[in-house]
Every structure is written in C-alpha cells, then in structure tokens.
Design brief:
Structural class: alpha+beta
Order of helices and strands: HEHEEEEEEEEHHHHHEE
Radius of gyration: 21 Å
Number of domains: 2
Shape: elongated
Number of strands: 11
DNA sequence: ACTCTGGCCTGTGGGC
DNA sequence: TGCCCACAGGCCAGAG
C-alpha cells in the first residue's frame, strides 16, 4: 500500500530513469484510470505526446512529472503529468514487448536512452492499477504562496499543480513546519489518528504508518487533538518521521534493477511493523518489559486500527 | 467553516 | 463446490 515512503521510492526511480526523456506516444487501455482528467483521453494523449519529462516531484502521496515542450527553447514548463497510486497503483519501466499486466491501464512510450554505463534503458512506462483508486491526469502548474524551496524533489520551480495545492507538506519535507502543524492540530476538534490521516494537515501518512507512529509514540487513536501539548506533538512527529525514514531506507534497495516496483509488501519493512497487521500477537515493547499484552484491532473510521491496549490506553475524553 | 460519512473499485478469504 | 459478504483503504463530494 503506497504511502509516503513507497511513493518517494517511485519518485526516485522515475527521476533516475525517465527524467530528460520524451514521451513519444501514449495508449489508454482503461479510461477509468484517467477519471480525473476531465478533458478526456484524446486531450490527455495529445498533451503528453511529444513532451519532455523535465523533473519528477512529490508532495505527500501525489507524484508528478513536470513536462516541457522540447521544440521550444523558450518554453517555460507549466504542465504536469500527475499520478496518484491510490491503493494499488504501480509505475513500471519495461520493454514494450513485455507481456501486459492484468491490470495495465496506461502505456507511455519513451524516447531511447542509456544509463551511465551506456546500457539501453527500457522504453515504456506503464501504469498498472488493480483497484483503480489511483490514476493519471494532466494539469496546469500554478504558483503557490506557501512555497518554500528545499523539499524532497522540490527544488526546481515554485509551482505545484492545482489539484495538489490543498495537500500539506509532509514530515520529510525540509520546509515542513512543526510550529504550524502544532497550531493547526490543536485547533482541530477530532481524534489524533483522524488528524494524521488528513492530507490537508500533514501529508503522506496512511493507515499503516499512522498505526505504527501511534504505537511508537504511545498515543491512542482517539486522543483529542485539542489537548495535545507541544511535547506531545513533538513525540508523535518524531515517531512519524522515524518510521517513515526507516521504511524509505528499506524500500530504497529495490532500485538495483531498472524496474520501478511499488509492491509495498515485497520489502522487508513489513517485518519491522509493530502494530499494523499484528492483531492477537504480543506487543514487543510490553514483552521486553515482562508484560504479556496482545495487539488488538478495532474498527474505526470504517477501517481497522491496530494498537496495544496497555501502551495506548483509551483516553477518558476520547474523540473519534 | 469545520467535521464526518459514504462511495468509488476489485480481489481475497471466511462462513455456510 | 459455490455463493455471498466483509474487508482492504486514499480521496473527494456532499451531508450534517
């Protein structure tokens, strides 16, 4: 399940293998993956075909390729090819003759290129998506007043797509402000996990890393946000940053090959999970301290939350 | 203005 | 064996 670390792994792969190349042509095998491109598939193809990928940028779980018109030396890039992986999306760099994946949705043919050793690179970028929660679309880049340089992959232009303008900076972004986050968090009248999952408040966190960070910081998911004091905010942010950094390190190893593989379950980080998916198994922190506590799973927000009932007791003034 | 629910999707797996 | 339903969950529209 692609959350921030997985999307960043994909961004790095695209930046390495696709940046500088021209998208020569495109085929849409399932228009549902272009649902958010309101102008339609022909417009999508017409826009991306012939454009050069100048850079690959990410904010939270949104990912986009900045396109430029190679025939016009004065061209100022103003168009982005957006991709969101949703639940099950993958961006794969493959040879055109490679067998079609079962859920292949979009094919983009890339201009020829070689790697640092002069080896020919595959010439197709594929978007594969089983559940179709993700998708691709083309959008205008717009200046945003809150922009500051220095974010991951964000050093090129003070522009972000309009569809990602409401997405907050993520905790690995150099321009992420803990002060601003703390103030906005305290202004909310909701539970802590709901706030962590709100991409407009802090981006990149999904159900897995929310549960992991809450476990690491020993907060219950229903902790009222308006009772969070500054040290509390520091503790949850430290936990979020730590778990995401470790996950990113684990996922980074998958780029030994040319293939951009986004299968989150294939990395070894799954073995490092402490709460998510460990229902009925011992809390390792409790076990280390001589207690026998089992991780339990509760239904919340229409999805599941895994937590240790001893480390993360439900607050008296719980907020959902 | 803010908070929260439902719907979008398909494959998997448990219960009967 | 096969059918049905719950579940997985990021995001957004719209209800409250």
């Amino acid at each position: 399940m692609p959350e921030l670390p997985e999307v960043e792994v994909v961004r790095r792969g695209l930046a390495r293998w696709v940046s500088g190349r021209i998208i020569e042509s495109a085929q849409i095998l399932d228009a549902r993956s272009l649902r958010r491109h309101v102008a339609g598939t022909e417009d999508f193809i017409g826009t991306v075909a012939g454009s050069r990928v100048r850079d690959v940028v990410r904010r939270g779980k949104f990912l986009w390729m900045i396109l430029e018109e190679p025939a016009d030396p004065a061209d100022v890039p103003h168009v982005a090819l957006m991709a969101h992986l949703g639940m099950s999306g993958q961006l794969l760099i493959e040879q055109p003759e490679a067998p079609s994946e079962k859920h292949l949705k979009v094919r983009l043919q890339l201009s020829p290129a070689t790697d640092d050793d002069g080896v020919e690179l595959p010439t197709e970028l594929r978007f594969v998506d089983q559940r179709i929660f993700g998708g691709m679309f083309v959008t205008e880049l717009e200046a945003t007043p809150d922009h500051q340089p220095g974010g991951l992959g964000d050093g090129l232009l003070p522009l972000i797509p309009q569809q990602a303008a409401h997405i907050a900076r993520d905790p690995l972004d150099a321009a992420f402000s803990r002060e601003t986050f703390h103030a906005r968090l305290r202004a909310r009248k909701t539970g802590l996990k709901r706030a962590l999952l709100d991409q407009g408040l802090i981006s990149g966190i999904g159900n897995i890393y929310a549960d992991e960070a809450l476990w690491a910081a020993r907060f219950h998911y229903a902790r009222p946000t308006d009772t969070m004091r500054r040290p509390d905010t520091e503790r949850i942010l430290d936990a979020v940053t730590s778990v995401m950094s470790r996950a990113l390190d684990a996922g980074g190893t998958s780029f030994d090959s040319l293939y951009v593989n986004v299968n989150g379950s294939s990395g070894y980080f799954a073995r490092e999970l402490e709460a998510y998916g460990r229902e009925g198994r011992p809390c390792r922190r409790c076990a280390a301290e001589g207690r026998q506590t089992l991780i339990k799973r509760e239904s919340f927000m229409g999805r599941s939350s895994s937590l240790c009932p001893w480390c993360q007791p439900r607050p008296r003034n719980a907020r959902l």
